[in-house]
Specification:
By secondary structure, this protein is of the alpha+beta class. The protein has three domains: 1-211 and 260-341, no CATH class; 214-259; 345-391, no CATH class. Helix content is 33%, strand content 16%. The chain contains ten helices and eleven strands. The protein has helices spanning 34-39, 41-55, 92-104, 184-187, 189-208, 224-238, 267-282, 302-326, 347-360, 365-371, and strands spanning 59-65, 68-71, 108-117, 120-127, 132-137, 140-146, 152-156, 168-172, 214-217, 254-257, 333-337. The strands form four sheets. Strands 2-1-11 form a three-stranded antiparallel sheet. The protein has a three-stranded antiparallel sheet with strand order 4-3-8. The protein has a three-stranded antiparallel sheet with strand order 5-6-7, with no helix packed on it.
Length: 407
């Protein structure tokens, strides 16, 4: 069932930020769901890092022309960053970012395909994963989309081969064979709960001030009024930033400083460990979420770790998106996200890459200028040919050296 135009707004934008979550407890006595997990700073750092990195990549549709890959003559509006958007309320960066956050937290992402333009969806809308219920009806998967205000719609699953008129594309983070994908938060609920519990413990420890900095010890047994007067006199003379280091002189009493019990202070180590644990869950190098104290096996240097981050962490998510979006294009066309977009902030690395391509003969001056959004120049379409390389076949006719007969 297609949404009527008046109903389309309910699919996206204004309602995406809030959902109905089921409370799920842990042994740490902390409720862990998609919303509470995102409030844990390490989870937020990992999710936003992955989602931002992929959403920032340029994305284009291509067509196979023999052995060549060429830009598709007509780019779908939901891939065009210049003069169109996936839908009237969402740009492509936001659409991609929502897809990734849906995969990384609930473990499922849903795209609603609105209308068709020559067989290609005209608009793409995010469906909030917590408002979607998949089920089987007569052997086919259908999706019921129910919002908190009572609106309900039922959609069929899109498949280029089986159901090209379907309305919903379903992406799963971890497909265990069920109708829903497995959420990373579900797989590590206890680890996330322990991190949240340690964070809350630290906040209460310092916020409530349950452990005083020291004690005024008196040997006799003063009355309540005398104790109150002594405490007030001590605060007046020795509290505050201006008197923080003034030696205390107390008549009839002695000052004993209290230190934090080392066992009670172990929550600091717990918090550090949980940073590495959550980074491990999302396969993010610890240094990218602020953990720079430990050695890492991600690589010998930051550049190597960043390369591994792309290969091990980002590439699987990129391929999920490419496959899903490619299924929406005409046969023979496909979508590719360009990781080179991540080099925009590193001008030296970008120019070094251009130099390698230019000297190697597979980039022309105009190819480079096009990547930098510069106008082409006359003669810029010529490709260089390295002087120290020749085709392998060029030496076949000279296998046997020529000899000159004696005079």
């Amino acid at each position: 069932m297609l949404l009527r135009p008046a109903e389309r707004r309910a699919v996206d934008a204004s309602q995406f930020g809030k959902a109905l979550f089921e409370d799920v407890g842990t042994h740490a006595k902390v409720t862990v769901d998609d919303e509470t997990a995102l409030r844990f700073v390490t989870v937020y750092a990992c999710v936003s890092l992955i989602a931002d990195s992929i959403a920032a990549m340029p994305c284009h549709a291509y067509r196979r022309d023999g052995d060549r890959r060429i830009l598709a003559p007509r780019q779908p509006p939901w891939l065009n960053d210049v003069d169109s958007d996936p839908n009237p309320e969402t740009d492509r960066f936001t659409l991609t970012h929502r897809l990734l956050t849906s995969l990384l937290l609930p473990g499922n992402a849903y795209l609603y395909l609105a209308g068709r333009d020559g067989g290609v969806p005209a608009e793409l809308w995010n469906l909030h994963p917590r408002w979607v219920t998949p089920r089987r009806v007569d052997g086919r998967i259908v999706y019921t989309y129910r919002t908190p205000d009572g609106q309900e719609s039922t959609f069929s699953r899109y498949s280029r081969a089986l159901n090209p008129q379907g309305e919903v594309v379903h992406l799963k983070a971890f497909d265990n064979g069920g109708l829903r994908g497995l959420s990373p938060i579900d797989a590590a609920r206890e680890a996330v709960g322990l991190g949240i519990a340690a964070e809350e413990y630290g906040a209460r420890f310092f916020g409530q001030g349950a452990v005083p900095p020291g004690l005024l010890v008196v040997d006799n047994d003063p009355g309540p009024e005398q104790l109150k007067s002594m405490a007030e006199w001590f605060r007046t003379n020795y509290s505050g930033r201006a008197r923080a280091h003034v030696p205390a002189v107390v008549r009839g009493a002695r000052w004993e400083k209290i230190s934090i019990d080392p066992e009670a202070a172990q929550f600091l180590e717990t918090r550090k460990y949980q940073v590495a644990e959550i980074a491990r869950l999302f396969r993010v190098p610890p240094h990218m979420v602020g953990d720079v104290e430990r050695t890492t096996s991600w690589g010998a240097g930051v550049a190597e770790q960043n390369r591994m981050f792309f290969q091990v962490t980002l590439t699987p998510w990129v391929r999920r998106l490419e496959i899903a979006l490619s299924s929406l294009l005409p046969p023979g066309e496909f979508v590719r996200l360009d990781p080179a977009g991540l080099l925009r902030g590193d001008i030296k690395a970008r120019y070094d890459a251009y130099k390698v391509g230019r000297d190697g003969g597979w980039l022309s001056a105009n190819d480079v200028r096009r990547l930098e959004d510069m106008e082409p120049i006359d003669g810029g379409d010529e490709y260089l040919r390295p002087m120290n390389t020749t085709p392998a076949s060029a030496g076949e006719e000279h296998d046997e050296p020529e000899t000159t007969p004696p005079a």
